[in-house]
Amino acid sequence: MALLQAINLVKTYCMGQTKVKALNDVSFSIDKGEFVAITGTSGSGKSTLMHLLGCLDIPTSGQYLIEDKNVAKMTKNELARIRNQKIGFVFQKFHLLPDLTATDNVALPGLYAGDTEKDARQKANSLLELVGLQERADHFPYQLSGGQQQRVAIARSLINNPAIILADEPTGNLDSNTGNTILELFKTLNTKNQMTIIIVTHEHEIAHQTKRILELVDGKIKSDKTI
Amino acid sequence: MNSYRLLLTSLRSLKKHKLRSLLTTLGIIVGIVSIIAVMSIGHGAKYKIKQKIESIGTNFIIVLAGTPKKLINNKGGGGANLTLKKTDLQAILEECDEIAEASPGIIKTGKAIYEGKNWQCMISGVGANYTKIRQWDLTQGSYFTDQDEKGSKKVAVIGQTVLKELFGNTDPIGKTIRIKKIPFKVLGVLSERGKTPDGRDEDDAIFIPYTTAQKKLMGIQTGNFAAIIISAKHKDRMDQAAIEIEAILRQQHKLKHSDENDFTIFTQDDISKASDAATQVLNILLFIIASISLIVGGIGIMNIMLVTVAERTKEIGIRMALGATTQTILLQFMLEAVVICLLGGIAGVILGVLVAQAVSLALGWPISVSANSIVISLSACVLIGLFFGFYPARKAAALNPVDALVDK
Fold it and tell me: Complex ipTM, two decimals?
C-alpha cells in the first residue's frame, strides 16, 4: 500500500493576466519506509510540489492521498490536523520560534496535538537526546549553531510520530560538514526507525545519498530513478 | 494547546516589545483611570450630599402653603400664602397614623439687633417640638417650652451663625435681642447644621414660638401659618405618610376633585431625588468622556495588533505548518489583545485609586473605590480586547500557511 499518492496533480498560479502552471499533471506514489529526493532547478516546481505534499497548499486539480485519504478535499482544520499528525517539516532556514527554548520548540507540535505540557516536554527531551542535543535543551535558537538548530528542527518534526518527514533544502544553510551530519541523521532515521523521508533539494550530491530520485523539469516529472 | 500556554505566549510577546506595549496600553490606562476616579469621586459626592440631606432629618416632611407654582414665584412663600390652619395641623395629627410630631411654621427674614450690632437672618416661628422633629441638639441653654408657646412669650433660640455675628465670644444666654424693636430673651443656642443641599445656611436663623411670631411680629390675627413641619414615624413609609397628609389636607380645604392642591408637600426623598438627578447628569457626562477614551484606546490596540500580525506573519506560518488550527491562531492573538487591555486596565485601576485618593485629600471628601467600579473597568477592558482584537486576530488566522511561510 502506498503511503502517499499524487494523481494528476496540477497547480496553477495567476500572474496578472497570464496563468502559470507550476505543476502540470504530476503523478507518483511513495511507500512506507522510502527515502526519496525531489530535485530540479529553481522554477522547476519542486517547492510547489513540496507545499502540496506538506498540505500547506491545495492543488488546483488532481488528487493527493495520504494513507488513502484525499487531502485535496479537506477543510483548513483537517489540513492543520494532517500537518500536525502525519507530516514532520524540516526547513532550509530551520524556522524555530526565536522566543522558545529548544525543548519548547520541539514540544510545540505536541501541544498543538493536545498533549499535556508534561508529556510534550518529556517527549521533546528524549528526542533532543536522540539528535544529541540533550545538553542544549534550555538554549534559545540564537544560542545554537546552524547545525544544532537544524537538529532541533528534526527533533521537532518527529514529536508526533509522523508518517513522513518532509525536508526542504535541509542542508542549504549549512556548511558541507554540518550538512553531512544532518544527512547522516536522516539516513539513520530511515534505516533504524523505518521513517519515510522526502528531501527536496537542488544539489545532486545530496540527492544521490537517498534511495530514489524524482527529477522535476518545468512542472513535470522528467525521471524517477531508484538508486 | 491549553490556555495557560497561550497566555504565556502572549505575555512573552508583550514583554518582547515593552515600550510598544506600554504606549499601546496608554489609551486604555487613561480611560480606566477616568472611570475609576469618576466613579469613586461621584460616589464620594453622593455620600456627601446624602449626609447633608440626612442632616435635615431622615423622616422629615414639610407642607408649604400655596400651590407648587405659586411657591416658585414667591420664592419660599413666607407671608403671602397663609392657607394652613391650626385645624389642618390637628387633623393631620389625629387622622394620620404615620405622623410622630408636627409643628406649625412661619418663616420671614428680619433684622435682629444686639448692642448696636445688627444681623439680617431667617426668623422662624415654630412649635415647642421643633427641635425634636428636626433631631436638632442645643449646645447651650434650653429650647422654649409649651408654656412659652401657649403664652406667646418673647423668647428666642439662635443658630450658630447668628451667635457668631451678634454675640461673638459673649455668652448669649439670658441676653436680649431686638427683632422689629421687640425684645426677645435668648434661651439657647442650636448646634451647627451647615448648609442645606440647595445652599441655604441652616445656622443663620432665629427660632421663636410661632404664636409669638403670629401675634407680636407679623400681626397675623387668623392664626394661620405658612408651613407644617412634620416628622414621620417610619423612614421607609414616608411616601405613605405624604399620601395620607395630602388626602387629609384636601378634605380640610374642601378641594373639589378638579381643584389642584393649594399646598405643597416635600419629603426628604424629593430632595434626595432632585440632587440625585443632578449628580446623574454629571456622571453620565464623565462616563461618556471615559468611554470615548476607551474606544480611542481600543482603536490604538487594534492598530498595533495589525502591525504585530504583519510582523509575525512568518511565525504564524511556522505555527500553522506545525499544526496550529485557525482557532488556535485566532485565540492566540485575541488573547494577546485581551491581555494587553487587561494589563492596561489593572494599571489604570491602580492609578485611578491613587487619583481618587489625591482628590479625596484635596477636597476632604470621603471617597470610596467600590468593588463595582473595579469589576466594571476590568470587564470593559476584556470586552475592548475582544472587540478590537478580533479583526487583527482573524486576519492572522485567515492567512494561508504557504503564503505566511514564504513571507519575506
Answer: 0.94
